[in-house]
Amino acid sequence: MSATAGPAGAVTGTTMAAMVLEAAKSRRAAAIRHKEGGSWQQVGYDQLGRTVTALARGLLALGVEPGDRVAVLSQTRPEWTYADFAILCVGAVTVPVYHTNSPDECRYVLEHSGARVLFCEDADQLAKVEAIRGQMPALEHVIAFTGARDGAISLEELRRRGGEVEEGRVHERALAVSHDDLATIVYTSGTTGPPKGCMLTHGNLRADLDMVNQRISFPAGTVFFAFLPLAHALTRIVQFIAINGGAEIAFWQRDPKKLVEEVGEVKPTHLPSAPRLFEKIYTAATAKVAEAGGVKEKLFHWSVGVGRRLRAAEQEGRAPGRLVQAQYAVADRLVLHKVRDLFGGRVELALSGAAPIDPDILKFFRAAGVYVLEGYGMTETSAVASVNTIEEHRFGTVGKPLPGCEVAIADDGEVLMRGPNIFQGYYANEEATRTDLVDGWLHSGDLGELDEDGYLRITGRKKDLIITSSGKNITPSNIENAIRQSRWVSQAVVFGDRRPYLTALITLDPDEAGALAEKVGAPGGDVAALAAHEGVRAQIQQVVDQANQQFARIEQVKRFVILDRDLTQDDDELTPTLKVKRNVVYDRHAEAFAGLYDG
Q1: pTM for the full model?
Q2: How far apart are CA 332 and CA 330, in angstroms?
Q3: Does any domain span residue 11?
Q4: 138 bridge partner residues
Q5: What pLDDT is stored for residue 4 in this prediction?
Q6: Rounded Cα distance, 224 and 13, in Å
């Protein structure tokens, strides 16, 4: 098998198929952790290998050929990982489908990719497929993780059928997979237009994995917490990094309301996430202190200040003075360790990606002893293109480009990237490929800057730029992040293209509705009622005023409206990684925005 052990024991097979089979053969540790019947269960690497092989034999029994498209429609769970590796081991191509997709969105991905087989999570997802199956003649088989019924076969049935196939055939198929073979078509969740299918080869994924490992070490005992959709490129590459390095993947219970609590329970060492989780943890760390006020609040801010001074000394390579060390011991005992406990107390590195995050939040966590650092990439870069590390980081940037990934800034400020991790193009979309991939350079659509030390700073999206009626170019994400830092705010969407000033649509955080109601003396914690309450409006005005202080007058929000509900994926206003679909929000709430310019 085309795989060897690297210096840190990492598997170095050139394909994902070779990697998982070699890892299963050589590891004796836990690969998967998940909750079942109220208790955590562990799955060893040997069992991972047996499960993947059994499902792969089942796919061979169904007649899956190399290059066939096999889709997965499911939330992040262990079965997703088993199915993914089984698909890759038979030389087929994994097509992820977001579990939040509507039936019509599912149809688009399945039909466009030409998927022959679909792994489906449960009865809810099967219902979507049943509604559209007649429109997809290429789809021959549906396999249900749970709740199989007419028209779908169960995982147990797939295993049974695979029992008639010799195990050696799986290894033959896996060995035949090459570096240049297509591994996956990942359809971008996209904030505008229909999704595009990014074609990534085994070589692309292997390159990105190796490039990340050159920048970040993952020692024995590493535990990744997985909750973002595996349909997203970041979670997929984390999955591959984990299995390649012998780490453990702990899967969430698929309950967003228990997410912060579950992070503390799992006690991960590495936590990749979109910013929203870190914003939630930040709120959990600061909210009660602000409510308490008085001595408790002063002690909290003093402790964070001490932490900042200690970390500043470390960053500058000098020893902190004895006074600072003594103060830190007190601050840590009374306050700072409680912040780390929200992460489970063992986090060595938390990586934030998929959207911008306020640098003040990152600095707060660093003061408390937790590295939350930003990285950057796209589906088109196999997930990661640049990353901050513990040894080399600069807040407000997304780090230095990975070794082997070239980054350049075009004359108009667009970030361009080139390297072995760059995708092969968009499936069945030559026009988009020609536009975004020019002479090997990926045109990202993001605006950015490279500083004198090689750190990349993302300043906005070309399509998101607001040009006011006076001709001023404004990046809305900066002020949106500042407003969203408030515990009361869930989302902020700034508007003002061709207008004389900026306005914003703001939503309240449902998790903080009760506390907000108590603060303003409103009855209950109904978000719709709070949105219309004068006391709430006064609180949000304070939030906006405070955020405005960070920006020039032309970049300040002059007026805002509070929506009577939060933005949601179900309403197609957020992507599965919780990024706002700006054009959808602009169109859907056009009347509310227009009202902010009346009179």
Answers
A1: 0.87
A2: 5
A3: no
A4: none
A5: 34
A6: 21
